[in-house]
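Page 37, continued from 36.
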């Protein structure tokens, strides 16, 4: 636990449970403590590295009525599970208005449950389509126009290159499947606020079948590299940076990580000049893509002793100036659209306009209190990619329904 200076006598202390980062949240805690002028102080408490472990710790503490849950950094998929039983303090109307005026559509959707704002958007994240300019030029593909997964597959085949996708049996697989299904106009969970035994799963659909065609083709034809079954975000980035890289779907961390490796000499100096980016590939050529949505929203525990002060502190934390600062120093994109206009953002992240556009189109992962059951089931049926076939959507749907009805165990 990291304190932010000695508290004055009687000054309320707000505990902010943060996900691991490069120190940016602790810095914001210090800055907002200073500007509070003794009204409150913020101390940070570090959550585990893995999102699932973060969810477990937060849920257990909230269920136990832990009064230290003043501010929490929350992964969007876990918000419904915490909001439904009343674990989150209501967002004051004034706070909601002041903190969402310029929030990008995808980020705003991920902060709601049952169409009501239950958390405050902080930073957002999305995947871009990264490409090697040399491969695209040789293939004659026009990247100024939207491209489809079928086109990427065709280029990988003809150029004998690999596609940078995440094929491991992990959360990244759910991210991929959700983006594919949403980009065809479908939804993994069609009625997210229904009781467990009434939830309708939309995977066994035309959208799900197209997703299975894409994933299965990449897996069976070896287009994702031999390491695809265990490949997560970092591994796919390393694949993309190598001689056999072509296209990759991945988060914006790729850019600073690549430039850092170039600077220390572990990657060739001219690699950055060969990397381009655009918005997420389309599943259906006639429909805009719905890129993955990630990031962090801030919530207040319903048992907090200082909910009003906690929301006041949150307004300081998520100010456009602080979102800009956090992007530049920690690489996490703002949820506020105006932060992308800052000169320092444009200089450090030349792909910022593509990130902003992507976050306007982004679709949250299934928003349901049963997200853990849904996501874990997807991972079991869609990995390894080489086993995915035309029956996968139907089999996966039947399994999820049985799990939610208590008829089968994960």
């Amino acid at each position: 636990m990291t304190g932010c200076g000695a508290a004055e006598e009687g000054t309320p202390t707000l505990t902010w449970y943060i996900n691991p980062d490069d120190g940016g949240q602790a810095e914001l805690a210090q800055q907002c403590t200073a500007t509070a002028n003794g009204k409150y102080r913020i101390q940070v408490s570090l959550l585990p590295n893995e999102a699932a472990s973060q969810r477990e710790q937060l849920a257990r503490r909230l269920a136990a009525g832990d009064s230290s849950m003043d501010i929490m950094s929350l992964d969007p998929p876990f918000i419904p599970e915490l909001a439904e039983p009343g674990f989150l303090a209501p967002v004051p109307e004034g706070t909601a208005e002041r903190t969402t005026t310029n929030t990008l559509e995808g980020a705003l959707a991920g902060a709601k449950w049952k169409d009501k704002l239950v958390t405050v958007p902080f930073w957002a994240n999305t995947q871009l389509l990264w490409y090697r300019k040399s491969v695209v030029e040789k293939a004659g593909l026009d990247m100024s126009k939207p491209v489809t997964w079928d086109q990427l597959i065709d280029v990988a085949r003809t150029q004998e290159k690999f596609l940078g996708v995440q094929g491991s049996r992990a959360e990244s697989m759910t991210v991929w499947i959700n983006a594919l299904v949403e980009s065809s106009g479908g939804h993994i969970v069609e009625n997210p606020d229904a009781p467990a035994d009434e939830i309708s799963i939309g995977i066994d659909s035309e959208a799900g079948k197209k997703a299975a065609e894409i994933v299965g083709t990449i897996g069976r034809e070896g287009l994702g590299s031999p390491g695809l079954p265990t490949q997560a975000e970092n591994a796919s980035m390393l694949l993309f940076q190598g001689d056999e890289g072509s296209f990759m779907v991945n988060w914006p961390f790729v850019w600073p990580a690549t430039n850092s490796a170039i600077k220390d000499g572990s990657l060739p100096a001219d690699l950055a000049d060969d990397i381009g980016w655009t918005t997420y590939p389309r599943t259906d050529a006639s429909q805009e893509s719905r890129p993955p949505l990630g990031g962090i929203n801030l919530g207040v525990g319903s048992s907090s002793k200082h909910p009003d002060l906690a929301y006041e502190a949150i307004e300081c934390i998520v100010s456009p100036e602080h979102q800009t600062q956090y992007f530049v120093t920690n690489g996490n994109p703002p949820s506020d659209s105006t932060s992308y206009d800052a000169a320092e953002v444009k200089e450090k992240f030349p792909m910022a306009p593509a990130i902003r556009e992507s976050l306007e189109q982004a679709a949250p992962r299934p928003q349901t209190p049963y997200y853990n059951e849904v996501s874990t089931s997807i991972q079991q049926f869609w990995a390894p990619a080489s086993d995915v076939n035309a029956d996968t959507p139907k089999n996966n749907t039947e399994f999820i329904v049985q799990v939610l009805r208590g008829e089968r165990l994960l």
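The chain is about 40% helix and 15% strand. Flag for discussion at group meeting. The two ends are 35 Å apart (CA to CA).
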